[in-house]
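So, read this over?
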Amino acid sequence: MRNALNYERPKKIISTYQVDSSFHLDDQDDVNVFIGSENSRGFFGWAVPSGEITRIGVGVDHVTAIKYFRNINKKFNRSQILGINAGPIPINYLKKTYGNRSLLLGDAAGIVKPLSGGGIYTGIISAKNAYAAIDQSFQANDFSEKRLKNYQKLWKHEIGRELYIDSKIQRYFSRISTNDTMLNKIYETIDTEDIIRRINSLGDIDYPAKVVFSILMRKPKLIKYFLFGG
């Protein structure tokens, strides 16, 4: 549909591979996240508890996901695979999400959380603002590109800044995602009671940038990793 309407292709797309596994996680409240050179490239792997099954998967950038999935799946004793899901996730929004008599929403427009690949919350925001823009077009009986441009102004006003900052953080993480030494240094820096407490108190799955900035304020040593790579 995006191609048919002559919209550009998102600049960054993460390839994902996920299975429903028969493995049962005793802890049903926490998600397991896997980073490092063996587990992913440019993104991360995960194991999400879901009752009697576990959803195990990985996202990667510019490489094949299956190799990294196999490394992660080994941690779960090669349990039986009950189902497979795979597909691309665009994690950078398009410069233009509107056109003559058309709007792009959610994943189609790359309006997705860059750090997690999640699209439900951002999809709801884009749908809400698309409704507002379309309603305005009906009121004016004008569905031109110029009129529908307001859609992009609306969703960017609500979440554009967060997505922009998160994309910068994700770009940095992507560069060091296979540098195990660097990742260990960062972990050692933030693995303190104060930082863990702050993450738990400020943590917001939909607006993670404020947590990152708060950590940088308390651990300025991390800034050199962002600026100079170590």
About this structure: The longest strand covers residues 81-90. Strands lie at 13-21, 32-34, 45-50, 53-60, 81-90, 98-99, 102-103.
